[in-house]
Amino acid sequence: MAALFGADVHARDAAPLPRLRPSIPAQAPIIPLPRPRPIIPTPEEVAAEPPAPSACQLRLTADIATVQPLPKITAANGCGIDDPVRLSAVITKEKVRVAITPPAVLRCTTAEALAHWIREDMAPIAATLGAALGGVANFDSYECRGRNRAIGGKISEHGKGNAIDIRAITLANGKSHELTDIAVDKPVRERLRASACARFTTVLGPASDGFHENHIHVDLAERHSGYRICQWAVRDASDLVPLPRERPAEAPPREE
């Protein structure tokens, strides 16, 4: 019995045998992943090359105007421009930069006509006011809308990028002159009117239709038989009808 007990003690005191190490499988071979196939865009996804400059854009060289060609504009209700540009400045013959503020989005041929009017007529006329022409205030250029903003009306030339509204001019000395302001020298405004009517097929200002009392509209609308519209009344103080004086309170009552 003692022998068995002692054998049992020795069995408990004996160090446990280490566990067998698991067998390590052989390393799997490294198979390279296939290279991704190059993505070939469909013809619809290939960006079209920008169109070549139009003949009009080529004529508007850097010594005449600062223009940025724009993508073709297509809008609802027949609005849009096939050859649009953003006109930001006109360069006079004296190399003076006349800023268009804000830059006008126009059909290229309309921008071209505007640039030549500014550099050949407006600049020398404005200089008689005491300083070189420095800027032109763009009241409205391209905008998809009806004439005089009438809902459902015939599309305006503005909706074709074929018109611009001009509010005022600014001289190099910082002075601003509104083209409809009766305080601005009348002969200067008369010369501007005559030059505008010679270059554009439509000129609208005060006394035209009630919508152009504070700015001048010019466009190149095409009409049958070359019909032109020139409606810009160059007013001065004598054209204003004075309002009747207010009847004093102490005046006797009017007889019935």
Instruction: Determine the N-to-C terminus distance.
Output: 154 Å
How does the major sheet shape up? 9 strands, mixed
Helical residues, percent: 10-25%
Q: Helix/strand/pairing class, anyone?
A: alpha+beta
Order of helices and strands: HHEEEEEHEEEHEEE
Strand content is 15-25%
Summarize model confidence as the mean pLDDT: 84
Regions with little confidence, pLDDT below 50 for 5+ residues = 1-7
Number of strands: 11
* Tally of helical segments: 4
Q: Which overall shape is indicated by the principal axes computed on the Cα atoms?
A: extended
Radius of gyration: 40 Å
What is this structure's SSE topology?
Blueprint: H1 2-13, H2 55-59, E1 65-69, E2 73-74, E3 80-81, E4 84-91, E5 97-107, H3 108-126, E6 133-140, E7 163-171, E8 176-178, H4 186-199, E9 202-204, E10 216-219, E11 229-231
Parallel strand pairs: 5-6, 9-11
Antiparallel strand pairs: 1-4, 2-3, 4-5, 6-7, 7-8, 7-10, 9-10
